[in-house]
Amino acid sequence: MTTTQPATVPARPSDPRTSPLLTVDRLGVRFRLRDAVVHAVTDLSLTVHAGELLAVVGESGCGKSVLAHALLGLLPGNATVTGRALLHQPETEPVDLVSCGQRRLARQVRGRRIGLVPQSPATALNPVRTGRRLLGETLRAHGRDRGQADRLATDVGLDPADLDRYPHELSGGMAQRLVTALALATDPPLLIADEPTTGLDRPLVDHTLDLLRRRCDAGAAVVLITHDLAAARRVADTVAVMYASRVVEHRDGGDFFTAPTHPYAEALLDALPDRAFRPVPGHPPMLTALPVGCAFAPRCPRRADSCERAPQPSPVGAGTVACHHPILPGAAP
Amino acid sequence: MTSPQHLLADEVRVAYDRQVVLDGVTLSVARGETVGLRGPSGCGKSTLVRVLALLHRPDGGRVSIDGTPVTGVRYAVPVGLRTRVAVLFQSPRAAADPRLSLTDLIAEPLRAVRAPEPGVRERVAELADLVGLTPDLLTRRPHAVSDGQLQRACLARALVHRPDYLLCDEATAMLDASTQAHVAAVIAGYQRTRNAGVLVVTHDEALMDRWADRVVDLAGEVSAPAR
Questions:
Q1: What's the CA gap between A224 and A58, in Å, rounded?
Q2: CATH number, domain at B216?
Q3: Which residue range forms the structural domain that includes residue B143?
Q4: Residues B69 and B181 occupy one common structural domain
Q5: Is the alpha carbon torsion for B109, B110, B113, B117 positive or negative?
Q6: B90 lies in a domain?
């Protein structure tokens, strides 16, 4: 087991010893459709430190992937982004990823400062290039030795011989490992991994997670976007739970898995097969028609009149929870 | 003499080109039981599911349903026999026809056997309710729903002919914990009410422990009952 103990977590949200690498401040993302507005990310604030592995978890469609794409400027033209996302750099001014413009993102950020493992490798790979050629292009563009291709493949658990195949000749799991190798080729200080273990069997899932963990232990930061709570439990220092476009709980990983404070977080953990195996009752709201108050209230066993006002994140231990009636450690249920 | 109540792959052998994937594999799923199937990547789990689902003709051995041997695959199998086995795949995006609304996706197997339309509508509504799809979702096409919603529709489609055997090939692997628990509960509920046989392929040990009555290791022996 490589599960980290809370006592040795290198970067808690309030830990002053490590410097923030990314500060997201009241980030909002909306998509304008013909007859509706999708609120994909609302009022989202997060900090990621060097050496920290942050897992962003939540049900499908809660806005996890949009967050990743917003940070990298990869949203489609109908998106409006508000707020700030500061990427801190040694010895220079931080870059605001929201306002700095595509040119700067392309030249200085994407691939160099922030790597992305995209969610669906089948659509991310150029179909007319072999894996070796794709890796070679990336390494050369970043002034690195192309001879590293075999080592990168081995690191992600891919047989170097498979680099000579074209994407359509790879299984889903092999393509997944190839996009992970491509993202790691430039050794970015921040890696955003969007469902990096999809299509992998358990030993390879663990292999990939441990690889991400080792990057953090070596000083890089990783934002792991995943629906797989078991994966988050294995490697995360901190966990952010998203529900209906907002972060509802952001805690130390160990604290979160032993004592979640947001009723939604508790319900989600109860759905795990090694816990109650009970689905969260009801359905998440549509992002085009979010309620005015707490979006979880209609499904919540602890709801009260006060839930008609949107709860703001408030401190709980070293983290935050956005709930009027959180489950506080030690309090009677 | 009563015939056995199980879906049986008997000494099944499958090779792709010269690569032998299954070499004399025997697996049975009895009515009323949930069998877990596990094994390393590439050991032939999905191939075995395709053989049992009558989608892939084995190069050796045979498949039988409640003692009736099946010869041929797909449309070569009489409709009354082939509709008794249904399958739920890992990726609903790959499985679902992107041109069909969720209603048509669920109704298609009934219309394929020329079931009367009023009954089709009724059955679709009943199944949508069972799997937790709201009416406003049913008019949408796959691109406009989430993976979890689409997999629920695929489950409704799999159950539309009331199969005696349901094969789930990593069917909940890409679902969030809540949707996974819900889909598993729907399948377990169906399994009890129909006394159906269910085969669950998964890498998730916790899910296997929770769900399967017994576990079979492919490329290995039958292990002890999970519970």
A1: 12
A2: 3.40.50.300
A3: 98-161
A4: yes
A5: negative
A6: no
Residues of B117-154 as b/e, b for ≥16 C-beta within 10 angstroms? eeebeebbeebbeebbbeeebbebbbeebbbbbbbbbb
CB atoms within 10 A of CB A302: 16
Is B38 part of a structural domain of the chain?
yes
Tens-place pLDDT, residues A210-229: 999 999 999 999 999 999 99
Contacts of B185 in chain A (CB under 8 A): 277, 279
DSSP state, residue A163: G
**What are the two backbone dihedrals, phi and then psi, of residue A2, each rounded to the nearest 5 degrees?**
-115, 15
How far is the C-alpha of A219 from the C-alpha of B148, rounded, in Å? Answer: 36
One-character DSSP codes across A125-146: S-TTS-HHHHHHHHHHHTT--G
B19 has a chain A CB within 8 A of its CB: no
CB burial class (10 A; 0-12, 13-18, 19+) of residue B28?
A: middle
Residues B14, B80 within the same domain: yes
Number of domains in chain B: 2
* Other C-beta atoms lying within 10 Å of the C-beta of residue A285: 18
Contact yes or no for B23/B201 (Cβ under 8 A): no
Q: Tell me if B91 is assigned to some domain.
A: no
Residue numbers in A near B174 (CB within 8 A) = 198, 227
Interface size, chain A vs chain B, as Cβ–Cβ contacts under 8 Å: 71
When pLDDT is averaged across residues A77-93 and rounded to a whole number, the result is 93
Q: Which of B161, B178, B199 is the last residue of a domain?
A: B161
- Nearest partner of B211 among B224, B223, B226, B196, judged by Cα: B226
Do the Cβ atoms of A227 and B175 come within 8 Å? yes
Complex ipTM value: 0.85
- Same domain, residue pair B14 and B122: no
Write the DSSP string, A263-289.
Answer: HHHHHHHHTSTTTT--PPSS-PPPTTS
Confidence check: pLDDT of B41 > 90: no
**Is-contact A196 A183, C-beta < 8 A?**
no
Task: Identify from B140, B178, B205, B207 which residue to disrupt to test chain A contact, counting A C-beta atoms within 10 A and taking the largest count.
Answer: B178
Residue A55 burial (CB count, 10 A): 26
Give the Cα separation of A104 and A109 in Å (integer).
7
Helix (H) or strand (E) holding B95: helix B92-95
CB-count burial class (<10 Å; 0-12, 13-18, 19+) for B160: buried
Q: Nearest by CB to B181, which of A58, A198, A277?
A: A277
Looking at the fold, whether B156 and B124 belong to one and the same domain comes out as: yes
Q: Pull the structure tokens for residue B119.
A: 């009954």
Tell me: the pLDDT tens digits for A36-60?
Answer: 999 999 999 999 999 999 999 998 8
Best probe of the B interface among A171, A194, A283, A286, by most B CBs < 10 A, is A283
